[in-house]
Amino acid sequence: MGEKTIARKPPHCLVLSYPFQGHINPMLQFSKLLVHEGVKVTLATTRFFIKNLHNNNNLPPSISLESISDGCDNGGIQEAGGSYNAYIQRFWQVGPQSLVDLLEKLAKLGNPVDCIIYNSFLSWALDVAKRFSIVGASYFTHNMAVNSIFYHVQLGKIKVPVIEDEVSLPSMPKLQLGDLPSFFLTYEEDGPVLEMLKGQFSNLDKADWVFCNAIYELDKEVVDWTTKIWPKYRTIGPNIPSKFLDKRVKEDEEYDVAQFKSEDYCIEWLADKPKGSVIYVSFGSMVPFDEEQLREIAYGLRNSDRYFLWVVRASEETKLPKDFVKKSEKGLIVTWCSQLQVLAHEAIACFVTHCGWNSVLEALSLGVPTIAIPKWADQSTNAKYIEDVWKVGIRVPIDEKRIVRREDLNNCIKEMMESEKGEEIKRNAIEWRTLMTKAASEGGSSHKNVIEFVNSLFSL
Ligand SMILES: O=c1ccn([C@@H]2O[C@H](COP(=O)(O)OP(=O)(O)O[C@H]3O[C@H](CO)[C@@H](O)[C@H](O)[C@H]3O)[C@@H](O)[C@H]2O)c(=O)[nH]1
């Protein structure tokens, strides 16, 4: 380490994030790891996203924030008529040139970029890196298994629509249609999203590095298989602040880039609750639930007669049943919280989650068992792994309208809190916590991979 920092000017990485909370969170944490190892980092995402961040200046002083255009600088997806598909098309037209402009601007300021670490969705960023003859590293915010599914779509080995009852892929359990990412069910309306996800692999052979926010131990077979295809494929997660892992990175204390404002009295509310008594419920930053689904979850929680802390984003609040109060003896509803702090609290018993990949990694890292209600994107595949592979949770059944009913949620809560199976799940969750921390610690599988990458940058 010491030799690197004295010998030369630090290498400069531009970390380019897709403009959503579930993407910028892990990429910021990865940036902090690189800074800790002596690399200079500029974090970039879209103008509109930055403009609307609740606290865009809460970055470590060593990381600067830059922006590119997605062609929707004043309204994001709304400016593209509220259509995610239209938004992607516009972004793909405007983004590459805007990235070129940013690289040229940084070079003119005497700050040339040596490496672009781009969110794998933005595959065109790799073409830009190659035009500038700089290192290109793809960063996957989804789990390996999910990446492998989209890779097989790209290869034409999974055809959409899927007509078979089950899909078999190398080194993975058999997947039923309901275990595949949601776009396989909604491919007619989500065609462009599916194209974007296939596109992650269209030029990946040119990538110098391929990173995945996961740990080797989570899925050794899939990682080994993937490394045969992309020899520089590396697991570098879990990308969460080290204060929740081995506390090695002192400078990563409270920094974050938040789209929503945390209601931090949650921790006060948790303070007098008995150990392992509170159900934490959150469905991430993006997915909307319809009114019927929120009503079922609301009554499922109330009928459980247990303490619960539920994050219902401001945009979702009006969908709650009218007789449902935000603060009762047993329950507290907030619009956003510091999820990691909540998960780390000893009062938390389990996490009812939509299985966004960050939430899954955070639960695994903190040893919190999960009750899975996957809804969209990669979440069903994550839920399959949670229940059947890592055995750290229970998936709530859905009815023919694809709705989770209150009785089923209630039964799963009971099973988690009262049964022998629940006890076993809790024990597994604690074991995973140990493995996640070990992987991120000095000498652990992810830490070694980060150091290998950093050393390669210093020897450019
Ligand atoms: O009150 C809250 C709720 C969430 N979070 C954080 O917000 C992030 C949410 O990320 P994630 O759990 O991955 O969910 P989404 O925001 O829904 O993420 C999108 O992006 C992920 C990464 O690609 C995908 O896995 C998801 O399916 C997709 O919906 C996590 O870091 C949470 O800790 C908070 O800090 N406070």
Can you tell me about this structure?
The chain is an alpha/beta fold. Helices cover 40% and strands 14% of the residues. The chain has helices spanning 2-7, 21-36, 47-51, 84-108, 124-131, 144-155, 191-199, 220-229, 266-271, 291-304, 339-343, 357-366, 379-389, 406-418, 420-440, 445-458; strands at residues 12-16, 40-46, 63-68, 115-119, 135-140, 166-167, 175-176, 209-212, 233-235, 278-282, 307-311, 331-334, 348-353, 370-372, 393-395. The protein has a seven-stranded parallel beta sheet. The chain has a six-stranded parallel beta sheet with strand order 12-11-10-13-14-15, sandwiched between helices. A two-stranded antiparallel ribbon has the order 6-7. Strand 4, helix 5 (124-131) and strand 5 (135-140) form a beta-alpha-beta unit. Helix 4 (84-108) packs parallel to helix 7 (191-199), helix 6 packs across helix 7 (191-199) and helix 12 packs across helix 15 (420-440). It is globular and about 60 Å long. It binds uridine-5'-diphosphate-glucose. Residues 20-23, 25, 141-142, 282, 284-287, 311, 336-340, 356-359, 362, 377-379 line the site of uridine-5'-diphosphate-glucose (UPG).
Give a quick rundown of the structure.
With 460 residues, the protein is an alpha/beta fold. The protein has helices at residues 2-7, 21-36, 47-51, 84-108, 124-131, 144-155, 191-199, 220-229, 266-271, 291-304, 339-343, 357-366, 379-389, 406-418, 420-440, 445-458; strands at residues 12-16, 40-46, 63-68, 115-119, 135-140, 166-167, 175-176, 209-212, 233-235, 278-282, 307-311, 331-334, 348-353, 370-372, 393-395. Helix 3 links the parallel strand 2 and strand 3.
